[in-house]
Amino acid sequence: MAIAKAERLMNLALCLLGTRRPLSKRELRDSIEAYVEAFGPGNGATGSDDSFNRMFERDKDDLRELGLVIETVESLEGEIGYLARRDSNRLPPITLDAEEAAALGVAAKVWQQARLAGAASGALQKLRAAGLPEDVDPYGPHGALEPRIPVHEAAFEPLMLACRDRRPVVFDYRKATAAHPEQRHVEPWALECWRGHWYLAGWDRDRGAERVFRLSRITGKVRSRGGRYTADVPDVVTVRETVAGWAGEIADRSARIRLRSGAGYPLRAKATAVRELGDGWDELEIPYGHGLDAWLVEFGPDVVVLEPAELRADVVDRLRAVAKG
């Protein structure tokens, strides 16, 4: 059914773009096979005329929502016609500098391990055909290091589409401190990659508050749900700040930990002070914000939290949950 509608809309768009004069509803009905098969020729029964008029108006609204500029023209005889002028529906020339092309190349790399890898590559090829400078390589490294953004989680694609289409979703989520997953009803806002992990920021309907979910902790399939969002979607900056805060980016105090020598280089990079303790251990002072306990757990026996006490307790709780399975 979706394919049939897409084909009907495409044929209608081609008719409106290909004509040099406005076409009436009757002419469009007789020219498009899908209309003829469904309702017969333009001089059909009144009932079929009414059904066709409703479908035609819906199709016309859908095309306009997709961005097609459709003009309504009234002839001298008072007949209404429709056309889509090419000059009104022509995209402006595509101009990209080296930095913009490199950004598109990085975006395409997100899909290098996903089902839409071919589509991303094809899109860049079309940009090249549309005028992307030949001396710009959107896939090439734009510096000494080449960024890579892996996408291993099966939940990435359905959540990305749900964010785009503003569709609520349901999935089973296992918290780091829980032995078993629980169902979450979420209005997804955006996906963010942080420290090599993907996170979903959205509105948790069950808790009535914004939440961030790590995709690797989503179990099973992501299911779409009907209906509209119940909470306002914040702008991009706010979403990014939410992800950063819940993932440990925003710190408002300091924590003191013991770290095994030669381990935990990401922690060392964040440290504001490092002191050698001997016996294969160092003492670090690191920024302490939301999500630090989950990050420290990833280093296992190489990290011991000294203070504050609540951080130590949170890490111990998470380790016990992991040990219970």
Write a brief structural summary.
The chain has 325 residues and is an alpha+beta fold.
Distinctive features:
325 residues, five-stranded antiparallel beta sheet
Radius of gyration: 28 Å
Calculate the mean pLDDT score and round it. 81
SSE-based structural type? alpha+beta
Overall form: elongated
Q: What is the H/E order?
A: HHHHEEHHHEEEEEHEHEEHEH
Strand order of the largest sheet: 6-5-4-3-7
* Overall strand count: 11
Secondary structure: helix percent = 25-40%
Q: Report the β-strand fraction as a percent range.
A: 15-25%
N-to-C CA distance: 45 Å
Task: Provide the low-confidence segments as ranges.
Answer: 141-145
Number of helices: 11
Query: Main beta sheet, described?
Result: 5 strands, antiparallel
Give the topology.
Blueprint (H helix, E strand, L loop, with lengths): L1 H17 L6 H7 L1 H7 L6 H20 L5 E4 L5 E4 L14 H12 L7 H13 L26 H10 L3 E5 L8 E13 L2 E8 L4 E6 L3 E7 L11 H11 L4 E10 L4 H6 L2 E6 L2 E9 L2 H6 L5 E5 L1 H16 L1
Antiparallel strand pairs: 1-2, 3-4, 3-7, 4-5, 5-6, 8-10, 8-11, 9-10
Helix pairs in contact: 1-4, 2-3, 5-6
Describe the protein.
The chain is an alpha+beta fold and 325 residues long. It has helices at residues 2-18, 25-31, 33-39, 46-65, 98-109, 117-129, 156-165, 236-246, 265-270, 292-297, 309-324, and strands spanning 71-74, 80-83, 169-173, 182-194, 197-204, 209-214, 218-224, 251-260, 273-278, 281-289, 303-307. The strands form three sheets. Strands 6-5-4-3-7 form a five-stranded antiparallel β-sheet.
